[in-house]
Each structure stands twice: as structure tokens, then as C-alpha cells.
Queue: 2 jobs
Job 1
Amino acid sequence: MDQPSSTTARIAVASFIGTAIEFYDFYIYGLAVAMVIGPVFFPEASPDAQKLNAFLTFGLAFLARPIGSFVFGHYGDRIGRKATLVASLLVMGFSTVLIGFLPGYEVAGWAAPLLLCLLRFGQGVGLGGEWAGAALLAVEYAPQGERGRFGMFPQLGPSVGFLCAVGGFLMLSEWLDDAQFRSWGWRIPFIASMTLVLIGLYVRLKLAETPVFARVAPAPTVLPFAEVVRRHWGSVLLGALSLVVCYAIFYVATVFSLSYGVGKLGIPRQEFLVMLSIAILFMALATPLAAIAADRHGRRRVLFAACFLALLSGFLFGPAMESRSPLVITAFLSLELFIMGAAYAPMGAFLPELFPTRVRYTGAGVAYNLGGILGGSLAPFFSQKLALAGGLSWVGGYISAAALVSLSAVLLMRETRGESLD
């Protein structure tokens, strides 16, 4: 049998492919929420209530993500990054595939939404353990001075995962009519994720343990989470708050905007999915640019600039969406996701650098997933509520407020560029 090895290319692929798969799984649910989950699992409610219920199931996974970060972080800090990353991928993959086979309300009654919530919870647990491990895999192999560049690889995963998710639903929208899509077509992307999971498992099982963890493995911390709470709670809190703007922008610009654009503005679903596909390319473009800038100029400077631009962009949300122009809306969504990519890219190195090796998996994972709860779990839900109460300008205010929170956190954090991981 081949012995595990770790070339730069294999490290890049292993850290990238896992987050791409995990976020593909996560995003296909978000897109399904915007298009079909409400009518399939909550058909007795009004259309607006269906959307709110669907958005609540979307937020459930964010509440599960800290549990995943506690569990997988504990074992990731005690037994190693590699085995824990394999386990997180399996949890996420099986939860996603089972959603594809789940009967709707008309067949199973209230058992259907209950099982949906359980599987959505499983998705959250799996993703809760994925990101931190993938980021550590890249950063703990990186040469000094290049951790931002290596930390870029897991940060590219969401862009590619989202493109695959949107591309899959876009093809189904072209091939199937609405009745076929609502009946069974939406299930195909969920079931198809099993193929991607098998590819990810193959790549990760071929990888060796990180050298940074190997140096501390003989004396692991007994309870990593207890040490994180006791000694590093400030880094966890500030790290989480710095991520709020990333999640708020992303899920408002994708899940809520898709739902609102199709349902309220009357833009065809296929057309809006193409618009999102174009916009997500700008997020992918911003990721390496911001990662390189973070190595050259520091994490805090890049994050400060991105948060400031995000604060200003909130004022454009209402006018851009209310224009009803696909060109204007696409340009605005591209701007939002470019800013999101610029704020998200440095986090691949920044959050792991805040914590010592013996608790790095737990600390970075808890901070990352707490940021997901605060910034993303209820972003589509609150946006729907704000749009109903005060219009789209209120949704833009929500983005600006999230940016202000993250901006304040960044100002209070220390610069980690150049610090030793040991």
C-alpha cells in the first residue's frame, strides 16, 4: 500500500476539495430553500410563511456548526487533523444524500419537516468540523511568510462549491419543467454529492499528518475546548465578530436575493441563477488577490478595507435591486461577492494564527462557526422580515450594520502576520 505523502499540490487539493464539497452540499440546500423547500415541506402555509419556515431550517445548520467544531476540534487537537477531516466529510456527505431521498409533506406529513431538520442539523455538524481542519491542513504546511497564500486554498472551496451548486440547479431548470423540478428534480444535486465525497475521501486518505501537529502530538491538551474558553475566549469572540460581515453579505446576496428576485421582482429562476454564477466569479477572483495582499501588507489592513467597503455597499442594495435591471443587479451582486471574497480570504490564515497548536483546531473552528451563527444563520430570515417591514433599504442597512460589527472587531485584533505557529 502507498504510504501517505504531502507534496504542495496534494496539500492544496486536499484542503481545497473538502471545503468545495462541503460548501457545495451546504449551498444546494440554500438554493433549494429559495426555490422549493417551502412548498415541498410546508405546503399548508401561505407563500410568505413557507419562505420563512424554509429559511428557519436553513438557519438550523448554523446552530449545529459549533457542536461540530467542539466534537471535531476535540479529536482534531488530540489525534490529528487527517482522521478528523475524513470523519467530517462523511457526516456532511451522508446527511446531504439522505435529504435527496427524503419524502415530502404530502407523503410523510409532519415527519417530513422534522426529518429535514434532523438532516440539516447533520449538515451543520459536518461543516462545523470541516473548515478549521482544512485551513489548518494548509496553514500548518505553509512556509513562513506564505501562510496567507496557502490559507487561500480552503477559502476557494466555497466559490467553486457554489458554482457547482448553481450550475447543477441551472441545468435542471433548463431540462425540466417546474412540475418535474418540484416533484423530483431538486433531489438530484443532493444525491449526486456522494460522488464528490468519494473523491474527497480518496485525496485525504493519501495525505500525511501536518508537521506542526506532529511536533506537539506526544503531549496533547486533555480538553482543548476548556483551554480555549479559559485562555483564548477573547480571540474566539473577536474572530467570530470579524466574520459576521462575510456571512451576512454572502447569504443576503445569494439566498435572499434569489428568493426575492424570483418571487417579488419576477426575474426567471434560470436567469437569476446565471446572474449569481457571474457574481460568484468575482468572489473567486478576490480570494487570491486578498490572500496575497494579506501576506504582503498584513491581515488586519486587508480586512479593514473590505469591511469598510462592505459598510458603504449596504447603501446600494435597495437602489440596485429596485432597478429590476438584470444588468444592474448582476453588477451589484458581483461587487458584494467581490467584497465578501476579500474579507473571507485572509481568514484562512488569520483565525488559525490566533491560537497555539495544541488548541488550534478547536479555537479556529469555534470562532469560525460562531461567526456563522451571528452573521449567516438568520440572515435570509431577517432580510425577508426587513423587506416586508420596511423595504429593501432596510436589508441594505442590515449589511452595513454587519460590516460595522466586523470592522470594530478587526480594529481590536492583533496582527498575526510573521508570528510563528509554534
Job 2
Amino acid sequence: MNNTDLLNKSGLISEEAIEKLQKKAPDVSCQCPGQLIDIYRQIQAFTEYQQQCLNQKPQDEMIHKWLQSSSVNLEHIISNTIITLARLEGMIDEHNQILE
């Protein structure tokens, strides 16, 4: 797996990488990778929820756009944190390959 496979078009960790890392998460000494992946998925769901709020409550558009933007920023932070932790835990090598 190369670097472009780690990230999707938005610069976030790809679903393929998440799935592979999630399978490997129980093999590391602690549950931090799995916990971060769970947090990432919750933030993704919150970002999607904000789009629904924009559609359903246009009077609160400014608030929900701000929340959605903040949520996307969190997705990027957690995405980068997952990849860095996976490298530190030996799950991703120096060539950005997820180790089998």
C-alpha cells in the first residue's frame, strides 16, 4: 500500500486503510489505535449530521456550517494522528505500507 492509498481525495485516511488498521489494532500493546478509529468514525458521523441540520434548519445555517467546518478540521487532526500512531506502533513502514 503506498501513500496515496493511505489518504483519500480529501486528504483523510482512506476507508481501506482504516479497515486494515482496525484489523491490526488488537495486535498492538494497547487499544489506542482502535479507540482513535472509533473517535474518527464518530466525528465523521457528526460531520454528516451537520449536513442534515443545514437542510432541515436553514435558519441556523451559520451555526451548522461552523460546526461542520470544525468537524472536518477534527477529522483531519484525528486522521493524521491515526497514521502517525500506526507508524509509531510499527503498523506502517517507512514506505507507507501497512504491514501485513
